Every structure is written in C-alpha cells, then in structure tokens.
Amino acid sequence: HTASSTNTPSQVTRESAGSSFCISTTMASNLPSRSYTPRSKTPRPKGQLGSKTLQKGAIYKIHESLATPIEELLHLTPLIAENPRAMQACENALDEINQADSKIGKMRPCIIARPCDTGGNPRIFLMGTFQGVCADDLAQFYQLFCIPVAPNKGYPDAKPLHSTPTWETSSTWVIAYPFVSRRRLNGMWYGSRASGIGSGPPTPTKSQRPGRTFRLDSINMTSLVKQSREKLNRWQNLCKEDPDTARQYVVEFRVSS
User: What is the structure's pLDDT at 205?
Assistant: First the structure.
C-alpha cells in the first residue's frame, strides 16, 4: 500500500483562503502554482483562533470534509489540469464544500501543521475514521495518503503516528496532505471528561471537568511531514509513469466520496 519514493521535491506556494499557502518546505516538486478561487468567495470566519494561540502539533477540531484535502491536491495536479472535465469536477466539489452554508463534512480532529504568521487560517492535517472501515476497504487514493494513528496499526508496512496522550480509537487516520481550510477552528479536541480517554469533540463547560487535550510531539510531527512528502512523491511518480492508474484512483475517489 505505501511504497514510497525518496525524490527530493522543491517548494511551491499559492494563495488559499486569503492567506499564503505553502505545501511544505521542499515539498511538491511538480505541482504548479495555480490558485483555486471560490465562485462565491467565503470570507475568513469571524472568531478564528489567531496564530499566537496555535501550536504546531496541537490537535484542534474543525467542521470539515475528508474529501477537501484530496480535492485541493487534485486541483494542483497537472494530470487533472490537462483534462477540463476533470478540473471542472474538482472545482465544482470545492465550491460545494466551501459554500458559506455548506453542511458537507462533520466535526473532526485536525493537526496544526503551521500557524499562519499573518493571522489567517493555519495549515492543517485532517484526521478521520472513515466510519471504521479497515485499510483494505479504503479507496486507493486514501490508502495512498492516509497514515494510521496508534492504536490503529493500519497496514503491515505502515508507520503509525503516536499522539500524546495515546489516541482514543483504533480506526483513526491522518490524511497526509496539508491544506488551508476555509472553515474556522472550534477549539481544541478534548478527551473524555469521565475516563480521561479522548472522545471529542465537545468543549467542556465551566461546570464540567476538562478532558485531556491531544498533540503530536516533535518526533511524530517530523515523521508526519516526512511521510507526507514521500506520499506526495509517490502520487507524482504514479501520474508520470502510469497515468491510467492515477486516473482510475481519481475515478474511485469520486465514487467513494
């Protein structure tokens, strides 16, 4: 599932959600600097947590769709750009997700990849359980870009990430493509107030004992960034060397979304 390339990519940036979007330092060699512009521009949410509040590796909650980071990636993929219908499908999906009154998605955890120095929305890695399905039942695109979060062991050659404290479910994954969401963060992802084991996403009231918060330490953040680069390289190589299979990944992703 996760054969990785070790090519060294170069940096690429673009404007997203009104703030500078940087895929990663030395990341994304073949992704062009092309901007997605919503048809009905979604303003930066009021009350967005400022950059001074956020810490890299901290786990927050956000109402978001698991399809969003994949759509953002596809929008920057040359193989998609070559096909007007495929590009239109991508932009239509992003427009639908990013409508101000959109109900797509649900409250889910996300990892702060990089706070925005200018006060805009941070770059995040989105997390999800995919309704608890096993690794082999995930769409190929998600298999390519997902990393298990322990105690989820993922697949045989996976390199699970370890949160502090240990994550609460055995079916959680990180989609290893960082992006800037157009939706606001809704505070930190809290653990269970009764047992101390994470169950999020409720934020405790003053009358309730706060649960534990979660984060990735520097070692696990380094692993996440490294694996995300490797997975992006693998996708780029697949697009170059076997474009028919890459297109099939996209078709399966659309059917499963």
Answer: 47
Q: How many CB atoms lie within 10 A of CB 4?
A: 16
Q: Give the Cα separation of 119 and 152 in Å (integer).
A: 34
For the four alpha carbons of 62, 66, 68 and 74, in that order, the dihedral sign comes to positive
Query: Token digits for 254?
Result: 């659309």
Burial 109-120 (b: 16+ CB within 10 A, else e): bbbbbbbbeeeb
Nearest to 89 by CA among 81, 101, 100: 81
Q: How far apart are CA 169 and CA 156, in angstroms?
A: 19
Higher pLDDT, 200 or 62: 62
pLDDT of residue 21: 31
Residue 180 · residue 121 · CB < 8 Å: yes
Closest CA to 228 of 90, 73, 19: 73
